[in-house]
Specification:
By secondary structure, this protein is α+β, with helices and mostly antiparallel strands. It is built from 8 helices and 9 strands. 29% of the residues lie in helices and 29% in strands. It starts with a strand and ends in a 7-residue tail after the last strand.
Length: 245
Amino acid sequence: MELVRYADRPDLRDVRFRTLSARTFPAFTHHNQTGTRYWGRLVPEHPDFQLALVDDGELVAELHSLPLAWDGSLADLPLGWDDVFERSFETGRPYDSLAALAISVLPERRRERLSERMIEAMREVGRAHGLRELIAPVRPTLKDRYPLIAIERYAEWRREDGSHFDPWVRIHERVGGEILAPAPDSMRIEAPVGDWEEWTGVRFPDDGDYVVEGMLAPLRVSAGIGVHVEPNIWMRHRLTPSTES
C-alpha cells in the first residue's frame, strides 16, 4: 500500500467522492455550507495534507486536514469542524498545529486497521511540517444511536474495561490521542425541508424536532427550514514531546 498526495493524482480525485465519501458519511453531511465554501481550496492550497491510500491501484482510504493556529488552550480551541476552515483560511495567524477534517476507509476494508494507519499518516505529515499538535473534531461512530444524549455526557461514557464507549474515539485513544472537550456546535447544516426530505428519505410535515437515522442530534424544522447542528468530540495528539513535568 502506498500513500500519495491527491495533488499528484487527479485520477483519484475524480473518483474519491463516489468511492469513499459517499459511502462513509450520510448524504446530508455533504451539504454543509462551510465545507462547500472551502473544500475546493484544500488540494490547491494545502496539498501535503490531503492524502490517499492506494492498494494495488485501488483507492482504499483517505485523509484530509488543515494547518491552523492554536495556542494549546481550551479557550483558543476552534468551536468545531466549521471553525477549522475559518481559522485556517481567514485569520492570518501563523500555523503551528494541524486539524483533522476527515478520514475515510472503504467499508469492506475496515477490519484491517487502516483508520489507525491514516491517523498516524496525519501525525507524520504534521511533524514533517514542524507542527506542534494534531487536533481532531471526532465524529463519534455510535452517537447516532443516542441523538438525544448531550455530547458532554456521551464524551464521558466508558466501557467496564475503562476504554471509551465509542469505537472511533477508542481508536484515537489507543494510538495516543486524548479527549480535550466536547464540541456541541461543530458542524451546521441549514437547508429547505424539501432538501432534507431528499437527503434522508424522511417526510417532515410540521415544525418540530426530529430524530433521523444517521444524525448525531435531532433535526430542527421551523417555517420550512431544517437546521442540524452536529456535535463532535475534540481530541488531541501531541506531535512534539510535552514540556510539562
